[in-house]
Amino acid sequence: MAAGVVLLAIVGIAEGIIMLMIRPIIDRVLNPTAPDSDVLLFTLPKGGPSVYLNHFFPHTIHNVWTVVSISLLVVFLVKSLAEFAGNALVQWCGHRAITDLRNAVYKKIIRQPIAFFQHQPTGRIMSAVINDVERARPAVSEYLADIFRQSFTFVALIAVLLNIDWKLTLACGVFLQMILWPVGKLGRRIRRSVESSQSKLGELNQILQETVTGNRVVKAFGMEDSETRKFGAAARRLLRETMRWVRAQVVTSPLMDLLQPIVIALLLLYARDKIVHHEMTIPLFITFIGALFKAYEPVKRMGSVYQQFAQAEGATTQVFAYLDLKEEKRDAPGAQELPAFSQEIQFDRVSFCYDETPVLRDVSFAARKGEIVAFVGSSGAGKTTLVNLIPRFYEVTSGAIRVDRRDIREVTIRSLRSQIAVVTQETILFHDTVRNNIGYGQADVSGERVIEAAKAALAHDFIMELPKGYDTLIGERGTRLSGGQRQRIAIARAILKNSPILILDEATSELDSESEQYVQRALSNLMVGRTAFVIAHRLGTIRKADKILVLEDGLIRESGTHAELLATGGTYARLHDLQFADEDLLAPADAPNPNAARTGDHE
Ligand SMILES: Nc1ncnc2c1ncn2[C@@H]1O[C@H](COP(=O)(O)OP(=O)(O)OP(=O)(O)O)[C@@H](O)[C@H]1O
Ligand SMILES: [Mg+2]
């Protein structure tokens, strides 16, 4: 960075020298009658020494043309090289800064608690990390280099101007004020407008992202035209907002140009007077005008640079807001590693609410190591919420969850989560190979273990039929697989993780009865010696659970084993009757009825 700035300073100085050479060119080179001696470049003020161009050359070279030409060549060469290297260096710093910013935002976002992702539209987040940051890039790369280059040029040229006529220069400076004020005002408008146009862009992104991933639903409901209109409307809003800052931006340069005729007119008046009184020569005046306009260029340029910064500031407001977010609840001070799970998981009067309304109320139960606890209850009863509290996806609102008598808020999240394998209600897969999806989160796991896990999850056969077997890419979110296949991959992933605590949220809901029985068997094998929390709507899959908890409106209504609950004849018994009555109705008469044995159970 420092080297880049120095190089750009050299560019500025070179620009000044080039201006200074106008005088010798007019005075000496173009004037054949001039005595062929010293070439005066400039005289330092207050009787300081004069600098002569030819003093930089050996005495053998004394032709003015040669001296000036070689000097010009050297100065331009130095300027060009310094400009190239200086720009490259400063821009490199800018691009690096942008890369760092993007990484920092990503790191922050990926560590946000789950609730963050439920409140922030995905499209907006993506737009912030990609578009908003990109928007700031020119400001800190090209324009950053520009700032240095232009301000050094400006300083060098001002020095030249002061050297020629300081009063005149200061007089011109007064006019400059007139221009800076509106530019500043416009800059503020640009910042606000860019901020809101970036959020419009985020909206656009959001529509695109949702309708592309959900294109099946869009097609099925014939919503193409309607979505196109929605997209068009959002694009129009973006256009309107964009034009607001574009107008503010393009008016700046013409506005600044208006200053020039005024200044020229006054200068001509002044110079005419001075030249008449021989206080100034025409070449000196031309140099002055030249330097003045050259010096005004950086000022104009800085006007637009300033606006670029205003744009960048507006665009990154959201990004910096993300950076200011608190990360997922960090471990409590002095949090310890959770030792390998060995005895019991205990819910002690746990209550929980997402916002105001309580979702879980006073839930208490315990699961000993090796037990299978099943949750039953109508949709929305709070089952998923309850199991999500165990890996601390959410924190309990009151009460406590203890693993081996330790409150899970007092242990490190990492050590807690490393002991839990989850198969979520919605299967989440990544656009990657089957192998990497199964081995997700486990560095260097052997190929055999992946295959073993896939076999246990009854996934091996269909995986082998995929075009490239375990190396097949399964499409974004696994869209190239069937629902049941996705689910089996998720189960294989959990099997591979081999954790003492297992959470299965509707893990087999997408499987046909036959596959379900097989997978159930695989899961039963897996559950041996582990503690499992199982949620299932199909009651057949949880009959063997050690404990069945019936949730209703966030309360535990009943608990007991399958047989006990049927005997009490409460909600569970009713659900059970309903379900199997249904299945009896639906089962074809000649097919072997898989529920025959079960229906006998409760008589
Ligand atoms: N992120 C959330 N923010 C606010 N409320 C939520 C959130 N997630 C779920 N809820 C509410 O909490 C209640 C319980 O939801 P939960 O997902 O635990 O139900 P469930 O028993 O798993 O249902 P299902 O059987 O349909 O999966 C529901 O009323 C739901 O509307
Ligand atoms: Mg659920």
Walk me through the structure.
The protein has 603 residues and is α/β, with parallel strands linked by helices. The protein has 2 domains: 322 residues, ABC transporter type 1, transmembrane domain (ABC transporter transmembrane region fold), CATH 1.20.1560; 143 residues, Rossmann fold (3-Layer(aba) Sandwich). The strands form 3 sheets. The chain has a 6-stranded mixed β-sheet with strand order 8-9-10-5-11-12. It has a 4-stranded antiparallel β-sheet with strand order 4-3-6-7, with no helix packed on it. A two-stranded antiparallel ribbon has the order 1-2. Strand 1 and strand 2 form a beta hairpin. Helix 1 crosses helix 6, helix 2 runs antiparallel to helix 10 and helix 6 runs antiparallel to helix 8. The protein is elongated. The C terminus is likely disordered. Bound molecules: adenosine-5'-triphosphate and magnesium ion (MG).
Give a quick precis of the structure:
With 603 residues, the chain is α/β, with parallel strands linked by helices.
Key phrases:
ABC transporter transmembrane region fold, six-stranded mixed β-sheet, elongated, disordered C terminus, 2 domains, Rossmann fold, binds adenosine-5'-triphosphate, binds magnesium ion, 12 strands, 603 residues
